[in-house]
Amino acid sequence: MTVHFIGAGPGAADLITLRGARTLARCEVCLYAGSLVPRELLDECPPGARLIDTADLNLDQITAELVRAHEEGKDVARLHSGDPSVFSAVAEQMRRLDAAGVPYEVVPGVPAFAAAAAALKRELTVPTVGQTVVLTRIAQQATPMPEGEDLATLGRSRALLVLHLAARYADRVVAELLPHYGADCPAAVVAMASRPDELVLRGTLSDIADQVKAAGVVRTAVIMVGRTLGASQFRDSHLYSTERERGCAAGTGGAEQAG
Fold first, then answer.
1. What is the C-alpha to C-alpha distance for residues 1 and 21, in angstroms, rounded to an integer?
2. Gap between the Cα atoms of 52 and 45, Å rounded
3. Which end of the chain, C or N, has fewer beta carbons within 10 A?
4. Tens digits of per-residue pLDDT, 207-228?
């Protein structure tokens, strides 16, 4: 039997992937983060499935449940919000399963930053304005950041920054990024992305922290900072340019490649 790490998506129940929903539907055991995963998703589980809220469980207890399900000959779903590849604490669970000899697979999901970009109706990579997106967080009441990954260092790139787990510390984020991006740099905060209570705040580094405080946003939000958020005057992408050679003769094989 297999443990399936499934990305549940950013919040809306219908943003789980088809593969995720189909996998969930055949798992007799499901571990989920009760504070983050929509309850409606649990309706996808088969009748009689054992449902385990991991909100109050530690890593040892979670691992024990995964191993127990495997030993019982049952497929088990481990539902994580967003996508398991980013800020999901999946790596340490995989390490434990490797040590226990329990097989697992990963089913990707829609990450929070993608849902936030959709709410803002923005492409995060815009030709000649910005082609780099940095996903990060800050070290505050959590695991310390590795050397060289602090905001002051990352800010020197002036790339589009997406910060998770930082809304409570918006003042600090602004203070560290202002020297690199400038007060007029576009900034946005999306809380509860894709959910009925979604909240979108738009502004600049000069006022976004005040907006966050006024709205009372402290969790389940991403902060975005970068020039692409406000870009309107930019060159069209080479992807569909009339000047681009197309077809096999150009060596592209007809494939669409962004550039």
1. 18
2. 12
3. C
4. 999 999 999 999 899 999 999 9
